[in-house]
Amino acid sequence: MELQKLIQVLDAPVVTGNPQAEITGIQSDSRRIEPGFLFVAVRGTAVDGHTYIAGALEKGAVAVVCEEIPQGLNDKCIFVVVKDSAEALGKLLSAWYGNPSDKLVLVGVTGTNGKTTIATLLYQMFRKLGHKAGLISTVCNYVDGEAIPTEHTTPDPITLHALIARMVEAGCEYAFMEVSSHSIDQKRISGLSFNGGIFTNLTRDHLDYHKTVENYLKAKKKFFDDLPATAFALTNLDDKSGMVMLQNTAAKKLTYSLRTLADFKGKILESHFDGTELLINNREVSVHFVGRFNAYNLLAVYGAAITLGKTPEEVLVVLSTLHSVSGRFETIRSPKGYTAIVDYAHTPDALTNVLNGIHEVLDGNGRVITVVGCGGNRDKGKRPMMAREAVRLSDQVILTSDNPRFEEPDAIIQDMVAGLTSADMEKTLCITDREQAIKAAVKLAQKGDVILIAGKGHEDYQEVKGVKHHFDDREIVRNLFANQQA
Ligand SMILES: CC(=O)N[C@H]1[C@@H](OP(=O)(O)OP(=O)(O)OC[C@H]2O[C@@H](n3ccc(=O)[nH]c3=O)[C@H](O)[C@@H]2O)O[C@H](CO)[C@@H](O)[C@@H]1O[C@H](C)C(=O)N[C@@H](C)C(=O)N[C@H](CCC(=O)O)C(=O)O
Ligand SMILES: Nc1ncnc2c1ncn2[C@@H]1O[C@H](COP(=O)(O)OP(=O)(O)OP(=O)(O)O)[C@@H](O)[C@H]1O
Ligand SMILES: N[C@H](CCC[C@H](N)C(=O)O)C(=O)O
Ligand SMILES: [Mg+2]
Known about the structure:
Blueprint: H1 3-6, E1 14-16, E2 25-27, E3 37-40, H2 53-58, E4 63-66, E5 78-81, H3 85-96, E6 105-110, H4 115-128, E7 133-136, E8 141-143, E9 146-148, H5 157-169, E10 174-178, H6 181-185, E11 196-199, H7 207-210, H8 213-225, E12 232-236, H9 242-246, E13 252-257, E14 264-272, E15 275-280, E16 283-287, H10 292-307, H11 312-319, E17 330-333, E18 339-343, H12 348-362, E19 368-372, H13 382-392, E20 396-399, H14 409-417, H15 422-425, E21 428-430, H16 434-444, E22 450-454, E23 461-464, E24 467-470, H17 473-482
Parallel strand pairs: 2-3, 3-4, 4-5, 6-10, 6-11, 7-10, 11-12, 12-13, 13-14, 18-22, 19-20, 19-22, 20-21
Antiparallel strand pairs: 1-5, 7-8, 8-9, 14-15, 15-16, 17-18, 23-24
Binding site for ATP: 111-117
Enzyme class: ligase
Domain Mur ligase central: 109-305
């Protein structure tokens, strides 16, 4: 594609050299430049892409988009100077692929917890309703039926635009995606045109990155601020940040709630371990999901589907057939009559919600044994809070390792222990080896009890010092249960 044509999408770019050059690809990583490419120099969190411009030119880049031309390189190639390279990158990629996000209905889901669940259920629902659809999520990306493994909740812009282009090529009419706060802050979603945005909730997470809750909130809000008037913005009225998200949006404002009057109003009629009876806008539905937090997720799914033009009847029929998302409240029954639940709760709020969900069903019958750890190189402030919540809502707690990354597992456990009193410690064990911790929980459990294994959900690895070792909570539980007799 001709550079001249490509850069038409940018706001007031200043160009040096002749922009009639042909571009063979766009790349923001100098290591991946091929001859004829356009290099976009982005200021990152670790390094500044501007320092790699010379390297990109050596590898054959013919043009560079940047915020500042490095000294001495002025005449070495065509420079396109912009105010914000990260924003420019997304716009250029969208133009490169022929604006694929304009060719399907794109809905983004943001918030601290519930993104994967809502995006995945919407994807499953629209496929069940006979449409081709795509999914971009923490667990896995999908181009209709084709699974594409992922490392991120919201991929980098190059992967993201290529993925949406593939969805369009495959005939997808809808795409549902998780929009993480990191991706909003880093403008990974620039150049995408959204038809709708959904807000779940905002509680503590990622303060290692955003530093303050206020910055974290601002990042989430920016997603709604940037939605066009043609889109819808569906928010959780029961979350204290719910309405804040919609303050400055041009999109059509819609709400869901379990407490007050809203566009999509729900009520829990009855809950048990196999599911919940719900009332949604005065219609009864039986679902295979447990916990109040999942009632919120289902309300959001219902609200989005109705807003996208589906009828209440067809949406409720499909809703009643959907099952829990991989690693989210996944129940495994022991022949001995107790239940293990593997869940991705990795924030204090998620842990509280999952444990409350378990208590709603147990209703005082049976004990709760919780196995939980916290990830390394992530928000340290949540560690003592998670330990406290686990102890407050469990009969027995085993603190263990999650993904230690580059930290010492025992030091992370000590950060968790710091949140506990000596009375709390009486019902707490620390077993660093996660497999041994799960084994200990299984030994302690008796008929009617619940073992909650929290933090890793669908993850099939444990990340230690940059290496991912195979590790799957569910596999360990299933193997232990397979050797049991009733
Ligand atoms: C802290 C963080 O979010 N970092 C993300 C960020 O990288 P960065 O800003 O650190 O990039 P950088 O290393 O500083 O490099 C800056 C620029 O120089 C370029 N470069 C760099 C080196 C070189 O030799 N040549 C070169 O051109 C890079 O390609 C980049 O364009 O942008 C990259 C591309 O988009 C991401 O892959 C990377 O994710 C890192 C690996 C990460 O772990 N991120 C996590 C925290 C994350 O994003 N998580 C969220 C939410 C999780 C959840 O709650 O679900 C997610 O969306 O996954
Ligand atoms: N609506 C909700 N409110 C509070 N907690 C929830 C909600 N939905 C799910 N959870 C809890 O949070 C965990 C993660 O859920 P999910 O994967 O759907 O969230 P997410 O927002 O995608 O998380 P991530 O930021 O890691 O991508 C679940 O395992 C459950 O414990
Ligand atoms: N995707 C999130 C959740 C991580 C879950 C937990 N298992 C951990 O490793 O901290 C993150 O990267 O912060
Ligand atoms: Mg997710």
